[in-house]
Amino acid sequence: MAGVLALAGCAKDSGGSGSGNTNNAAGSCVTSTAPAAPAGATSSSSTGNKPNAGSMRVGLSFDIGGRGDASFNDAAAAGVDKAKADFGIKDVNESTAGPSEDEAAKEQRLSQQATNGYNPVIAVGFAYADAVKAVAPKFPNTKFAIIDDDSITQPNVTPLVFSEEQGSFLVGVAAVYKSKNCHIGFVGGVNTPLIQKFQAGYEQGAKAASNKVAIEKEYLTPAGDFTGFQDPAKGNTVAAAQISKGADVIYQAAGASGKGVFEAAKSAGAMAIGVDSDQYNQATVAASKDVIITSMLKRVDVAVYDYLMAVATNTIGSLPKRFDLKVDGVGYATSGGRIDDIKPVLEGYKSQIINGKITVSSTPSN
C-alpha cells in the first residue's frame, strides 16, 4: 500500500514517474491517488482434467480478417489451437468472412459446416448474429457458439461475451500514467455498440486517473461498413492525425487496421496500446512492437478453449455468463516491461472494479 501511495504522491508532487521509469511523465497528468493493490494479488487460471476429444470436429467461422489479423480472430484461433493440443482434437474446419458479404453467405458458411458434421460450430463475431439465429434451429443437434452476441435464445446456442469496458478502463489508466503530454487517443474500427464499449472504458479509466487529460477519438467507418476492421492505411492516417494534435498514447480497437495505428505511432515516436491479444508478441506487428506499451486482453482464446472443454465434458452450463475481470476474461498485458512500474496502480483499480467500488460504463459519456 505504501508503495502505491508513494507512487501516486510522487507523481502529483514532483513530476516523478516511479522507480526506474524513464518513459513516463505521470506527474504532469495524474491528479488522483491510486487505490492500493490488494496484498498478494494474483491472476487465477482454470485447472482441471483435460478431456480426450479426439473425435470432436470443430467448425470455426472467422470474422473478416481471419487467422493472421493479430487481434480478435487470432485470439479465437489460439483458443482452438490450444484445445487441439490439449484435448487431441484433430479435425477443425476454418472459414473466413469477406468484408462485404451478405447474410446469405454467412448462413451458407455455418450451414455447410453443420451439414458436414462439424459440432460444435463457433461463429467469431457479432456480425454472425442473424446467421446463427437463422441456422441454429435447422440443426438442433449441433451446438453453436457465438462470440460478442447474447441476443440469441436458441437452446443449442452459447453466447461468449465479455466486459471489454473493464479491461479498457485499466489501459486508460495506463495511458495517463505513460503520457508525457497528458493527451491520449482512441481509434475504433467500426462505430458499433461493441467497439463503443472499448472507448467508454478507456475514457473512464483515463479520467479516473486524471481530471485534465485530453482525449482524441475517431472511428474509421460508421456502423454497417466493416471495412474499418481491415484498413491499416486508414488506421495509420487517423492515428497520425491524432498524434499531430498532441496525443502521444493511442489505443486502437480496430482489428487488422490496428497495424496502421502502430506504424503511425512508431513513425512519430508515440506509444500505442493493443487490443484483444497480447500484440507485443504478435508476429504480424513485430516491426512495431517497441511502441506497444500494453494490450487490453480480451480473452477470446480462454472463452473458446473453455467452451470446447465444456462441450467435451457436457458442462456448458458451468461457463460464466460474461467473461469479466473477476474470471480473467479481460485484463492487460505486461510483455515488454513498459508498464511494470505501474502494475500496482493497475491492480488497485482492478480490485476496485471486481469489488464493485468502481462501476465501468459500457457506453461513452458523449
Notable features of this structure?
single chain, 366 residues, alpha/beta, Rossmann fold, 10 helices, 11 strands, globular
Write the topology of this structure.
Elements lengths: L1 H13 L42 E6 L9 H16 L3 E6 L6 H13 L5 E3 L5 H7 L8 E4 L9 E4 L3 H15 L4 E8 L2 H17 L4 E8 L10 H13 L4 E5 L4 H11 L2 E6 L15 E7 L1 H14 L16 E3 L10 H12 L12
Parallel strand pairs: 1-2, 1-3, 3-4, 4-5, 6-7, 6-8, 8-9, 9-10
Antiparallel strand pairs: 10-11
Helix pairs in contact: 2-9, 3-4, 5-6, 5-10, 7-8
Keywords: Cell membrane, Lipoprotein, Membrane, Signal
Protein name: BMP family ABC transporter substrate-binding protein
Main location: membrane
